[in-house]
Amino acid sequence: MSKRRYSRDSSIVANGTPAKRTKFTLDNIAIPDVDVEGVVLVTGAGDVGQLGLGPDVLEKSRPALVKLNHTVIDVCAGGMHTVCLTKEGKVLTFGCNDEGALGRRTDGIEDAEFLAGEVQLPGKAIQITAGDSHSAALLDDGRVFAWGTFRDSHGSMGLTPKGIESDPYEIIKDVVVRKIASGADHMAFLTKTGDIFTCGCPEQGQLGRTTERCSNRNARGSPLVKFLHPQTIKIKPSLKLHFDNVWASSYGTFCKVADTNKIYVCGLNNYNQIGLKQLTPYFTPTLSSDFSKYNWRSITSGQHHTVCLDSGGRVYVIGRKEYGRLGLGKDCEDALELQKLLDLDDKKVVNVACGSATSFAVTDAGELYGWGMGTNGQLGTGSEDDCELPTLIKSKELLNRKVLRVSSGGQHTVILAVGNDTNNRGDS
């Protein structure tokens, strides 16, 4: 990732203190981390088309090649769908479209959900994200378009107060966005001015701008429109904070303060997965002393665990142990604080990802390691056994390919890889 560039206005009043929150401009963030052209491989459940292998392939236990007529530079696994970003800035989707997560009409078109199709966007996309039932794309001009729906404990919330959006909708306006992040049912937006906006489901505190009492859509004075309209997170104005990175976990949000390693967190914390002590949801962004100890390159979370990658290529984990998702071995306990993953300590990791109860790491040598729940073949090991330690993923399709990045959803995993041959489109 290239170095972030930003500038500040150093205007000072006579007594030497800032007159107000200083002007801040986040000029550039390299998105995605890897912009090398690759091919797409998939593993896991494909019963609703999320593997993109056609209607006859409902499950894979090892990575299989998706044949696309496009050169792909990024991939993202949603709950039951997949999103791909092409070299030309186009967005391709496949998988479940019951709630509009594909961003294109599939009704009455045979096998349309099982094969990749293009989303019609009004510009070039430079980043993609996906949640359980929504997807989004950041365009090169700073606009964000999303489609699908958010969900809460009452069911579908809609993407907007009008309901589900089956076609791309400009979800945040009048600001220039530099980065987007999707949780299971919420989104976070990092703006050019260093602010963070959120929208979607607020029930676990993941929006960072509602109280617990007002987090239910049926609560008095809490109309649905307030949750679905992007607004800034609630940080004390006296802190005068700007942010230069944001990550979304399934039910939480991680916000990095500019020029520092400080991380403010909010959301579900029932297994310490956002790095705070009390096992309760945090509805207000709170400084995590544990997460603030490190300089993070990436933070990713599943349902109850978090996997992080620091600037030196080391992997840390925190949260729930079941199914081996922490990678700390059979006899490990829940990780109450961040723990270094020693089994990968001799590797330089360049990319990490989490599914609901799975974890993955990609090394600079192009190796893919996975651990956690293997029930539907989403680990790609060839079996449905859980893996309690990082396990090298091997397959025929990976023999002559270097893995660049990985993304895992509810029951499937998507891999971007490049080989020594010229088969970048998966035509063979």
Automatic annotation (TrEMBL):
The keyword Repeat applies. Pfam families: WD40_RLD (PF25390). Keywords: Guanine-nucleotide releasing factor, Repeat. Residues 40-415 form the RCC1-like domain. GO terms for molecular function: guanyl-nucleotide exchange factor activity. PROSITE patterns: RCC1_1, RCC1_2, RCC1_3. It comes from the Eukaryota. GO terms for cellular component: cytoplasm. RCC repeats lie at residues 38-88, 89-141, 142-193, 261-312, 313-365, 366-419. This is RCC1-like domain-containing protein. The lineage of its organism: Eukaryota, Metazoa, Ecdysozoa, Arthropoda, Hexapoda.
